[in-house]
Each structure stands twice: as C-alpha cells, then as structure tokens.
Amino acid sequence: MLCRFRIYRLLFAAVLFVLPCVARAHDIPNDVTVQMFVKPEGQHLHILVRVPLKAMRDILFPQRGPGYLDFQRTAPLLPGAAKLWIAGFFETYEGDALLPNPQVMATRISLPSDFSFASYETALAHITGPPLPDSTDVIWDQTLLDVLFDSPIQSERARFSIQPRFARLGLRVITVLRLVPPGGEVRAFEFDGDPGLVRLDPRWHQAALRFVDLGFLHILDGTDHLLFLFCLVIPFRRLRALVPVVTAFTLAHSITLIASAYNFAPDFLWFPPLIEVLIAASIVYMALENIVGAGTVQRRWMIAFGFGLVHGFGFSFALRQSLQFAGSHLLTSLLSFNIGVELGQLFVLILLIPVLQLFFRYAVAERMGTIILSAIVAHTAWHWMLDRGARL
User: Fold this and answer.
1) HSE on the CB side for 217, CA within 13 Å?
2) Which of 142, 275, 330, 349 has the most CB atoms in a 10 Å sphere around its CB?
3) CB 55 within 8 A of CB 193
C-alpha cells in the first residue's frame, strides 16, 4: 500500500513538472501581426512573411539562462515551424489555379526592433543575410520569425489571389500584406482575421460582385439605416410609391459616398461623429413627421434625398477599409456598392410592407399604429443622437 502511494506521488509530481511546459507550448497569443510581401518575378512567386515566434505553438524552442532564445539549437526547428504554422495556413492562386504548397527557401530570427519589412528589398536582403549572433540575449517570445517562401508560376503578369487563414495564430490577428507587381505600384492590404479569398489584382467584374455583396449585407447590418427605411415605409406601405423614395435616397448617398472616396469630404476629427449625430437626427425627424402627418410621396422623396446625402458619408466611413479590395476599379466598386445597397433596401421593403399591412389590419388602427411605431423609433434614435453628440 505504501509503495503504491509513493508511485502515485511520483506520477503526480511528474504531471506538475510537465504541465507548465505543455501550457507554455499551447498558449495562444492575444495579438498577432503578420507582415507579408507577395512579389511575382519571372517563373517564381516570392512570398516574405514575418510573424511573432510565440505564434508557433506546440513547438518548444530551446532556451538558455532566464528564458533567452538559444539561436544555435533553434535554427534547425525554424523551417519545420514555418511549414507547419505559416505555409499550412494560406493558399495562393494564379488566376483560378491553385498553386502548389510554397517551399521554404530561408528562415531567420529577428529582433522586435528590426524594421527591415518597411520595403520588399530590405526585407529580402534581411532574410537572406547573416543571422543574429548566437550570443544575442533576447527573451524567446519577443522575437520574430522571418520566412522566404517560393512557388512556381507560369507568368509574373498573371492575376494572383491569396486566401490567408492566419486567425488560428492568435486571439486577434491582423495581416498587413503588400503586393509588389512587376513594374507597378505597391498595393497594400490590411485585414483582421480570415478575410476569405483576397484577389490582389481583381478584374472589374470580380470587384463589382464583391462590392454588390458588401452593399447588400451592409444595409442589412446597419441598424440606423434600417430604422430610417422603416420610417419611410410606415405611412405608405405601397411598393410602387416607395421605390422612387428609396431610389432618391440611394442616388443621394451615392453622390456623397463617391465624393468621400475621392477625398472631397472634410478631413477633420469631428466630422465622422457629426455625421453619426445627423444620421440619428434624420431618423428622429422622419419619425416625428410620421406622427404629425406624413405629407405626400413627393415631399417624402425630396426629404429622403436630402438625408441621403448625410447617410452617404456614413456609408463611406464603413466602406473605407474595404476599398483596398477594389484594385484599380474604384469607381466601379463604389457604384456596385450602391447597387448592392439598393437591392438590400428593396429586399427589406418586400419583407416589411406585408408585415406592416397585416399589423395595421389586425392589430391596431392605422393612425394609432403609425404613431406608436414612429414614437418607438423616435425614442430610440433620440438616445442615439444624445450618445453620439456626447462624443463631439
């Protein structure tokens, strides 16, 4: 019995000894920034990647002293880590053809103070240059892993795409990617998590389809824009009468959206909060107009056009991050986004009108229902307006 107890104690001590190592190997970093360069050159696609070494989980890198990275014993582990944790989490395409898994051509450890990834040329020279001395004292989880990948391609003039899945590297992963086309201007991308397939040089119809989809989804996700649309629908509830009103709203926000994309909008810190306040105020106004009397359809489309100019700036703030995916087709993408918004609005109308008609027919009298629904919307938008105004 005593012997068995001692065995259990030894096993328990062994588990306690192993657990810190396992936990350290499986810790998920909070914030990870991935830097990438993609450069087609001749028959090769060169891909430079920089990631924090601590994102290479399940690998215990050799250390010395108080947690310093042992460079000499770590070097043989780097190609395998790069293949497992980086090459295994992105796919590249030439046109629509999936390229073979990239080969690891070079790896090295860098210090957090290194700025060689400011350009492709300095990053390439750094990765292929001499490594840090073995005597360098740096804590292992403060270092960076730089990797040079290579994939065979047919032509450097082809259109390339990439599908990164780096979200697994940390709780929050931001990827900064730069395409270096032959003889062209460097094109920069920045995205959070896994963005899906990113076309680095899209054709016009590819950009158009992407932005139609963005516009459609944006109107469904935008609570303030949906409430404004709801206010337009409450007093009329006839699709034929509402289509001109909604179209006027779309035309108006198209004007300011395009103007903002071409940098004709004010560039002051107070401008975005002001627009958010005005958007909430437009909802309050429309709701109050419904309460006191909606007026005519002609009056309603003119008001919708005026407020659409304000909402267009709001759309531009939300769209700004996505314009990086437009490639060289900025205007096409903006117009496509507006088409998507219009389609989304018509979709909402088709769903909303029958629901309101049933509500007014069986639940409450038309005038009373208009007042109740508009009062609820006005109350909500009023609080939005006050909260947003406090940020001005």
Assistant:
1) 9
2) 275
3) no
